Amino acid sequence: MEAMNKTEENTITLADSSQAFEKALRSGRLSYDPADSNYVNNYMYMHTEAGKDMFKHRDTRQYLPTAPQLTQDQIRRKLCIDPRYLLEQQIAFSESGTVPQRPTIGDLVKWIEQNQWEGVGQ
Hints:
By secondary structure, this protein is α+β, with helices and mostly antiparallel strands.
């Protein structure tokens, strides 16, 4: 990574944009679905700030929020309709070391809700 501007409180860097997009898609921060407000083709990678990749909407110039926004119901729907998301989240969940003896879909949903966009499994 190449540092652009460095202060004691904040570090702004440039990451590989392809990796930043892949990480955002895997975590659910960006979506492959054109109907979603966080559709990947509507955003451009700007920089990484304090460890968080920052994306700006191409039309509105608004930054994509970095805080989790998916509810448990939205996560369940996404798991049902996006097999790639389901597989990626199952892998990240299994690698997290927090999997119960007999995990349920509810355990996975709860784990995703708690860890979305936190870098787990990315």
